[in-house]
Amino acid sequence: MTDFFPVMGEKLSSENTFKMDFSPTNRDLESLDLADTNIFDAYVTQQIKNSGSKYGIGGYLEHRAIYRRSLVFATAAADFRNIHLGIDIWTDAGAPIFVPLDGRIHSFQDNAGFGNYGATIILEHELGEKKLYSLYGHLFLSDLEGIEIGQEVRSGDLLAHVGPFPENGDWPPHLHFQLMWDLMGNFGDFPGVCSKREVEKYVAICPDPNLMLRSEVL
């Protein structure tokens, strides 16, 4: 079994991590002004604090009610993108993010705009005879300074930090962590959500990130 360095520098256990729910079954979201990031952030912070945890986690293939806050996800009604393809780790801005597996920097860019990724880094890894890509979204903009495409990274290296809003795409601070077998020609970006119609296609491309995170909470 491959050893992965903890992405947040420590194991995401039941002692320090709380499973978050952003699906339509969470009635709190009905009365929450999600377009106001300060209100959204206060809600996330309180949820984590009430649980006695350091991190909130969840989201892989979750049907989410929170994407109505941004037109980034709006397509035709039948194809509204609200199925989450990564795992989010909600915590304080500035929290360090580490490289889980040896690899290299494939690409990076600032995916600016309300509801987007903000600063994003994609790593390329060799896993047996296959390539696996890992994406880190909602970072500090300064994390994109001084790095280069093709730069080698080692397991356990400090990669980046959880970014603050509004520079992180205007979200409550969190890391969007996603795995992809195929980038489909994307560079510095990759869809983090899909429509229900596209789920089968994207599940084949985007495996469960907990295969690498190995959190007992999920």
From TrEMBL:
Q: What Pfam families does the record tag this protein with?
A: Peptidase_M23
Looking up SUPFAM superfamilies in the UniProt record yields:
Duplicated hybrid motif (SSF51261)
- Alphabetical keyword list: Signal
Q: Name one GO molecular function term.
A: metalloendopeptidase activity
Q: What is the protein's name according to its record?
A: Peptidase M23-like protein
> Domain named M23ase beta-sheet core: which ranges?
83-181
Q: To which species is this protein native? A: Algoriphagus antarcticus
What the entry lists under CDD domains is as follows: M23_peptidase (cd12797)
